[in-house]
Amino acid sequence: MRLRAALVAALVVAAPSDPHRFALTSTGRVKGASGVVRLVPASSPFGVAVTADGHTTYDLTLTVAGLPDPPSLGAFTAYIAWIATPDLGSVERLGAIAQGRPVAGRTSWNKFVIVVTAEASTRAEKRRGPSLLVGRSPSATMQSFADHPFYNTGAPPF
Amino acid sequence: MHHRAIIAGLSATLGLRAIGAGAQQARAAHDAAPASSSANVHLMAHVPLGHPFTVSGIEMEQELSRPYVYVSRMLGATNSAGFSIVSVKDPAHAKVLLDWTIPDAELHVGYGGMEGKYFKLHGRYYYVQCFQFNQGSPDADLGAIVFDVTGLPDASKVREVGRFHAPKSATATIPGGFHNVFPYKHSDGRALMFATTLSGTYATIFDLEHFLRGDADQGFVSRVPVPYATGRYHDFYIGYDPATHQDKFYGGAQPGGYFVFDVSVPETPKLLTSIIVDRRAIVSAFGRGHTITPTPDGRYVITETEYQYSPLRIFDLKPGLDGKVDAITEPIGAWTATWQNLAHNHEVRWPYIFVSGYEDGLQVFSMLDPAHPTDVGFYRTYDGPHMAGLTQQMVPDSEASLHRGTGSVLNGAWGIDVRNADGLIVISDMTTGFWAFRLDGFAGWNGHRWGMPDISSAQDWDNGPDGAKKGAHARSR
């Protein structure tokens, strides 16, 4: 278990340098929890997997460590992983997290957020519980330069 | 080097004509013997609100029967984006009535709640909370949320009634949220709101009645441009000038300078005068306009620029308003609490200027002689280390170090407000929270008692601005 936690931590540290891996960090509700998401282009007999409207499809694997037993946080029995668009306009369930087992999923969203919440049931289909871990796909950090500080004379925005 | 000499040297460097000798003497005195307050400033209440760097602007309702203060809250390390409502019914025992946090705050990225203002319309009271979230965050296009707060002090009756969205508010196609708003009771009777993003080269005017009734365009009226589109408005002030019967907009743009518009007919703003330094604006000291507030008669303005060592500069608008110069390029006076620091926002109650001076806390000076401002009083709300404030490189949701020298001077007293009815002064401090004070000899403010129009940031929502001819700009509806 300790080795596994160390491995996840190592992956988290390594994540920023690899656009196919990104870290999940604690929202502050739990200390010491972390996670990492690995992205792999979905397999395809045509070389590149895309949806019918041309969006690249990725398989993703989420691994988390350091979460306490759900009941220790309140009336919860499970941790559920969700994938969402950055504005939270669309949210889909990835799956329940069982310690030691990665959660697998697939997405064709260009930019997305992975959220881990505590829920009352492993079968929860809607995100209702507190958000414990969050991570953004590397693509989600890309921004227009038009609101870069350079265009604001470098002054902090307040 | 003696502090006074440093100030004199700084004055020369900045091209200032004068800094009051009295101010220099007082400043040197409290540099030499640091004190927490002057004898004429009395602490009424201090309410810590949370983690450092979660506190931003402040707004106080003006009616004594509604003793409510609104404190904007940033995300910080505790995902506190939203606002807090503090009751000052008993100013000596201020208490928090409500901490409102935006849903899914922990999934947001950006600064969060920045500034907020209240307004009154048809007998109901509303609070507008500005938000700034980054691209890629939930609510990235959210400008502000409007709450009906009529039911206070029952916090359960505070309810959201609408959201201003600012999609594609930038010169490009990015959102940016509102940094600040200024609800204004126009002389034509309308309740308007001016709003600014830090990415669009204009301030947008909304009709609040139209917004509340759900107009598809959010009550859009028009925009006040930044002349030459050089920069973005940061803060602004709108006030009525009884002498000219004009509603005037005063905006600080960075880069650019400061601009005064006639918004008597808000659909067609007209530039009256500018405080600029031409093409040097981007790199010049006062080209980075931040905050601007006029005196009640509109003759002088107090301006702030956001960089360490900057004093508050005082400009005389008369040459520009009279058309004798194309633009005003030189201040007539300046004031600083501590030359190593920076003053932030301010409220003008002639002749007093109430300042939220970041590390210097509450500061009050007099500008009876605008060329020679003098110290009146102070109370240091921030007792933390020097240079441990936010920087552009510091993500606001990171853990604050608060170690001396690890950051900027942007820490301490952020916002200030003054209640005209009784002179109560409130401060929001980025690290230490909410504060309330009284100043000896200042039991309230009415401009007429000082030979001035009764014009300040406080709006007369029931009667409109002092001195306005009834129906002067009345719109046919």
Notes on the structure:
- The complex is a heterodimer of chains A (about 160) and B (about 475).
- The longest helix of chain A is centred in the N-terminal third of the chain and has 13 residues, at about 1-15.
- Chain A has one helix at about 1-15, and strands spanning about 20-25, 35-40, 60-65, 80-85, 90-95, 105, 115-120, 130-135.
- Chain A has one helix and eight strands; from the N terminus they run αββββββββ.
- Chain A has an eight-stranded antiparallel β-sheet with strand order 5-4-7-8-1-2-3-6, with helices on one face.
- Chain B is mainly beta and about 475 residues long.
- In chain B, about 5% of the residues lie in helices and about 40% in strands.
- Chain B has a four-stranded antiparallel β-sheet, with no helix packed on it. In chain B, strands 2-3-4-5 form a four-stranded antiparallel β-sheet, with no helix packed on it.
- The chains are: A mainly beta (about 160), B mainly beta (about 475).
- Chains A and B meet through strand 8 of A and loops of B.
Determine the fraction of residues in helical runs of chain B and give it as a percent range.
under 10%
Question: Which blocks of ≥5 consecutive residues of chain A have pLDDT under 50?
Answer: none
Helix content of chain A: under 10%
Q: Calculate Rg of chain A over CA atoms.
A: 17 Å
Order of neighbouring strands in the sheet with most strands of chain B: 1-28-27-26
Give the CA-based shape of chain B: globular
H/E series of chain A, N to C? HEEEEEEEE
Main β sheet profile of chain A: 8 strands, antiparallel
Label the structural class of chain B: mainly beta
Evaluate the radius of gyration of chain B: 21 Å
Question: What is the count of β-strands of chain B?
Answer: 28
Which structural class is indicated by helix and strand composition of chain A?
A: mainly beta
**Strand residue content of chain B:** 35-45%
**Multimeric state:** heterodimer
Biggest sheet descriptor of chain B = 4 strands, antiparallel
The span between the termini of chain A is 46 Å
Distance between the termini of chain B: 65 Å
Q: Mean of the pLDDT scores of chain B?
A: 87
Q: Please report the number of helical segments of chain A.
A: 1
